[in-house]
Structure formats: structure tokens, C-alpha cells
């Protein structure tokens, strides 16, 4: 499943496009939509005159860009990474590869299926098969095939750094002459240029949590047509079954629907009456659903709703939708809020692997997927609903209908109605959940009301304009800065839909060069507000807090002498913890299924120096320290550099601390009456996780901490380690 990213951390953007690909977006478009945690790969043209021949040399070279906070006026700036190879190593170390390799159930199931498939082929044809491994990763499945008798294995891997690892790992294990690693997509393979003949057998694990998202159907179709023998090729896995159940969970429902949401008594989160009832889009959320925060209640048993036979030659196209209808009996009274999907793959000879919780050992690379419904529905035991399962080449989704009486053919809508509120176009599930958090909204509303008057000049320097809309309840002059053009348009429509155009001006801009005459009222700013929230940084809570501080500093000259700032104070907080499983998903693996992975492990050291954005409410842990402050964010002042070293007591020495969780809390008025946090118990925010080397605590153990904010550079560094006092 490796694609250079995991589901919570940074992706490699631009790797999928060739330099001459007409479909490739331009750099400006990529930068406009990229998130701070992503790494961008782009081609930059060059030209020079050869000194000897005088000839003009032209071409292009690959450039790797990473983001930093812009210390001049906030926002992101993209800088070229001097060591691209090191950047790719970090991408590998932060991916889910370790989680996959440590999944003993997965490895054993694939080994059994490969061994059985090769044995059956050999018995039938009296020769060993030629095997094609698509998406080889470290080469594990290819080595299993070679171990169990394949004549030759062709292993393709599109991510060049990963392909280099696979070449090293397979060679280190003595398979250099049996396994050929091809650093290409399978769809770019050609016969006889890359493979002398068609393969007899295909092995792959092109699955994501949604089953089809990594393109297994079109990949298999291409392989059958161009890379596999035409007569009965062996395909592992052979089929997949999708299971689904109906659940009640207000938290899941509010990750999609904002229908009926108000920011105040007079302000609706809607641009018109139709938007007020928006049903959202086709949302699929990979989540560990069995936790107290989502608190799903099963309203039905799990039922099999779809079977995909990977051995069957069936044309597939992205525009073709297939549906299947299943009757589902309600077993418990409640509010039907979501469908939860899992899958099971059949690897042959009766061996399966399943993402149903509890069937396999815990892992984090394939998890259940929740589909919040467009509208809640009350159900009772005895009710029977029609669950329609739809899929195309890359997606699975669901519709729930009441049974028709008298029975007749159910009309299935293959297309989901488009979002009419606009918010689903710009907000992810966590942001929608945040907008639905009434207590959070009330805290901002009350804190802003405490410092504004009808004549206050208010400036909102966060994305999302929520504080601006809230401020309009108590002020008649509000300006909101939006960094994304689409967001500025949507919130301008929200302003108009709430008859607030006379009070609020939405500007699509940054804060650099902002002048009084640009504001709704050309006067000093009396109240500066922000959540803080920024689309490009929504997975990085600490960056959002720092970005607000940089923006606040950039507009300092616009502020009146006694301007109020909401939030007034922020604190980067942390807590040492012992995760039950999450820490096992990263780091070195040594040996996997008996194969030496030293070449893979050589790239893993960097993960201990990186932050991982995780929704930690989904990952069980035991606190090892009390929460403590790492960095004060004094928004009442301009941003300044800060350095500190200190120690924290380890309050629970019965556990082995393996990580530190970091988040930000905001004291909106500085009096601790209204505090908004992005901490571990919050469903609507991710936290930063910094993993630690495993070191058992003793009676003298302490947590050594260090932090350095270099304000002039836009960089923040911190370090944690268990030491003996």
C-alpha cells in the first residue's frame, strides 16, 4: 500500500506526474493547495551556455520543496531541500511501512497464500511460475515468492527511494538473481523491455482502508491485459468481501453535517436556506471507531454487502458505478448516524485477512471506515432497511433507504447530490466537527463580546472567518482575512446570507502590506481575533498557534494603543505517555518473516526527530507525566525568540514512556474563564506526537526537555528524553 505517505502525516506531492505530463498541475496550483506537512516535488527548467562549445544547454531537474513558517508575515514559504535524498528517507521513516512489516498476521497470511499458489501452479503445469509483484515496498512478497519456488519474480515499485530499498533488501537476502526490482508503475511496464514474458502469477496488496483507494481494480485490469498470461493466471489475493453495519454516533454524524448549525442566535452557518439543510458529500473516514470519544452504538449486525472477485476479468472504468442491495435488520433502538465498513480478503486455501476489529492483532494501516449519513434517522428493533453498496474503480460508498411497500425495484441514485453549503468543499471532517462544537463557539462568542462594543473595529486574521461572523453580533465594523480564494468567496456568501454585508468585509489576502484603508472601517483596530485556524496547517496545531502570532506581529502597526487580542494567551502543552500500540508503527524492524531488513532500518532513525500529527483520542495510552507547558504564546506582544531547558517529573514509573503528545490551549481573555484546547481528548483536532527511544524508568528517572523558538527564522525545535537525575 506504500505511496510515500501515511494517512496522517506528510505526502509527497508531484511524484505521480512526469515532467511532460499534460495533466500535471503547475507549481502555483500545487503550492496553493498543499498542506504544511507535505513535501513537494516539481521540475524546474534550467539553461546555460556550455563554455567549451558555446552551445545552449536546456533541460529540467527535479526539485524538492518543504514548507516553513514565514517569519515576516505568517503563512507558508516553500524552500528547496538541499538534501533531497535525506528528505525522501524521512518520508519513508514517517510512512506506515513499519506498521505493515510488523503486522505478523498479514505477513503469515500472504506467505501461506503465496506458498499454496506456487505449489498449485507447479503441480498443474510441472514448472515453477514467473511472478509479478506490484507495489513491492521492501520486496517482502517478492522474497516470499522466491523462497517458495518462483522461477523468477519481477517486483515493481513506483516510489524510487522505496525501489532502491527493495533492491538492497532482496540482494542482502540472496535473491539478487531471482528478483528483478523495477522502479516503475506497473502500468508503465512493457514486454519484452521490462519483462521478457508475461507473468503466470500476480501478488499485491494494493489496498487502503477503503479497499479500492489505491487502484487495485484498474491495476489488475491493466495487468491482465498487458502483463499476465491470458490463460488462468494466479492472482493473490483472489477476492475481497465488504462488511457493513449501521451505527449511532453523534460525533461521527457531526463530522459531515453542519445542517442547522448556528454561530449565534442571529447568525446561521449557511449562505442561504438551501445551504441550511445541506446533506454534505460522499465522506469516508478511516478511523479506529471503537473508542469512548466516537462512542458508536451498533444498531445492526455486520452483514456482507459486496464481494469482488479479483480473478474475474471484468472491465472497470472510473465512471462506471456498480451497486448491490442488502436488507439490514435493526437490532437496537437509536439514531442511525453512520455506516461502518470493514473488509476481508481471501488469499487462497482458506486463509483470510480482515480489518474487522478484533479479528487480527492491532494494527494502524488498515482500519474501519465510517460513512456519516446525510440525515439522521430514528430506528427501532424490527425495522428492516435497504442498504445500497455502490462502488466504482476507486471508491465504495453507501445509501440507506426505507424498504418500499409494496416491494418494487428501488431507485438508486448513483450520484451523490453536490454540496450546496460550500463548507464541504473547504473543510475536512475535523473542521466540520469543530464548527459543530457549540461549547467552543460559545467560548469565542462570549470572549469576543466581553471586549467589543458596537463601534469597535475588529480584524479577524484566521482562515474560516468564524470569529468575524461571531464578532458581528456585537460590532458593526469587522474585517476578515482569508488566505484561500474559495474560502473567501464562500464566507462572503455567508456574510450576505446573514444580512451582514454592512458589517463585515472579507478580504482574500495575507496580512503583509495590509493598511487601514483596506479595512471595513479605515481606522485603528480595536479588537484582533482569530481561532487560530489555517487550512494549510490544520494538521499542525502548534504551527497554527505560531502562525497567528506571526500574523499578529505583522499587523502590530494597525492596532490601537489598547487593542484587545482574542485569544490573548496561548500555551504549547505536552504530556509524556506510554502508547499501548501506536509506537510500534514506526522504527526499525530488523527481520521480517525471516528476511533481513537492515537496508530499510538504515532509513528509520529520523522519525525520532519528527512530529507526527495524530488524532490521539483513537490510540490508547497511559499518562507518564502530568501535562506541562513547553512554550508560552504571548499574543499581547510581538513574537520573540524563546529558549528554555528544564525537567519534568515522571509521575508514573510503572510504564515505559514511549512518546510525548503536544497540543495548544488558548486562554481567550487571559483570565482562564474561556479556554479552548486542541488536546488529546478533542475529536476535532490532531495533536503532535514525538516518539522517544524506549528506556525503562527508574526511581531517579526524569523527563529532560528543551525548546528553542527562533522567531526571525520561523523555526521551532524541541527535544525530550528520559534521563536519570
TrEMBL record:
Entry protein name? Protein arginine N-methyltransferase 7
- Keyword annotations: Methyltransferase, Repeat, S-adenosyl-L-methionine, Transferase
- What Gene3D superfamilies does this protein's entry cite? Hnrnp arginine n-methyltransferase1, Vaccinia Virus protein VP39
Q: Does the keyword Methyltransferase apply?
A: yes
One of the Pfam families matching this protein, by short name:
PrmA
Signal peptide extent: none
GO MF entries:
histone methyltransferase activity; protein-arginine N-methyltransferase activity
GO biological process: any one?
Answer: methylation
Indicate yes or no for the key word Repeat. Answer: yes
